[in-house]
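Something for you to look into today, if you have time. Just paste the record in under my message, thanks.
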Amino acid sequence: MDPGHLLLLLLLLAILGLFVVLPIATVLAVALTDADGRPTLAHVGRFFQNPLYRQSLANSLTAGAWTVVLGSALALPLAFVVARFDFPGRLLVSTLATLPLVLPPFVGAMALLQVFGRAGTVTLLLQDVFGVRVDLMEGLRGVILAQALHFFPFIFITVSTALARLDPSLEEMGQMMGARGWRLLRRVVFPLVLPAYAAGALLAFVHAVDDIGTPLILNVKTMLGPQAYLRITAVGRDDPDGYAICVVMVVLSIACVLAANRLVARREYATLQTGAPAASRRALRGWQLVGAGSLCAGVLALALLPHLAVAMLSLSKVWSLSYLPSAYTLGHYREIFVRAPQFVWNTVGYSVVAAVLAALVATATAYLLQRGRVPGRGLLDAVAMMPIALPGVVVGIGFLRVFYGRPLPGLDVPLTATWLVFPLAFMVRRLPYALRASHAALHQVHPSLEEAAAVAGAPRLRAFRRVVLPLIAGGVLAGALLVFVTAAVEFSATVILVTRIEQSPLSYGIYVYSQSPLGRGAAAALGVVAMGLVTAGTYLANRLSGRGRTAFTLG
């Protein structure tokens, strides 16, 4: 056993125990114990007895299911066309199909209100031309539409990648057996890509169920996330019902993650041949090219509509009861950069600190997992990856419960009253991304390089700093950038932890501005800034990691 590795292991377990295990354990303890500290299921049982909570659970599950259905309707045809056919602009289509993940879902919901809402562009157009009035953004259907347009790229990415890597000989054998057209797709192709589809669909489902920003923006309170938020912030931090809702959300998230892992690992859907060439793409011409182009244009027009609406809303001075803005202005950008610049600069600062902390913890953890000679590495890995299955609202409530009113050593005020709570919460939420990036980078560095430095007389720390770190810097930085871009638009944990408006990050600023019709322009301007931060960070992360669009699947 290496004493240095043991000391590092204990330090990491202490950090993760304080900021990961303790908040989650506290949430579970409040939900599963009575006032005297005895174990009980009474609080969870009351959840299922309360009609409001049952309705919230049903609405969340309904929204998740319909998000998968509508997302599949958008993603599957587009994935098949992009993966199987060659046509001008195919790579552009593939890139644009991932852009909805750049726009935070609650920002997209605000933009869709301006297009499909009660006085939206499409609503007015349908009423004027056809005499039909349909408010697509009313209630739960608005949440479903916004979530489907935002989360369908998860399904597109996984399915298109699986189709592109499919062994063409399997389809050829199916054709030799008489399978053609739909039958070939149903009996051969779809079973082979089913694990990939299931992984993407479950990812979209769990993100939809955990989403709290979209329902709050659309004023839909009867869902799990908003109910947990309202119970804790309106009733009080000691209200056990809020914690019971968190337990239900955690169980749903963990069940989805386990189901995705199990489906991906099922061997009956695996090909027996390795190293097979990828399926060749068939060139499209004539009416086939027109049909494929129309399909891609239709899906992308719908998927990118929120981005266009956000940009136009950020520049609009007057946009009410009209198809397009009747006057334009840059005043909304003056508002967010001159009158209230704290939202942008707080976000940049918090996200940078969170990225640095995550990179340090992730690099040390990855090093122990691969090079460490101490017991307990499996526990370390499990604890570090735990947040990937935790909804943001649960992390926020856990931080609030543990650190409210309890100053940490060296602080005169509770952690929740300082700006430090935001980067720490963001670091916890996105640590698995940085860990997997660091782990992958370190895996490519052979231990013999470090051993050679040790033989040459370099101490272990110097060997790591001079030999290993430069070789894994790209992967570590890519992981840190992924933490940065996701922290920049984090809302679920933020809305729980905000105590003072001057400390608020960008996502909370969008929520505050969007509550007033006069403030939606400023909210949209903050949304444009968010898109810029996420786009730039994701592009750099993809370039550094060399994984192309794979980084988008982490969002």
Q: What stands out?
A: Residues 311 and 528 are 6 Å apart (CA to CA).
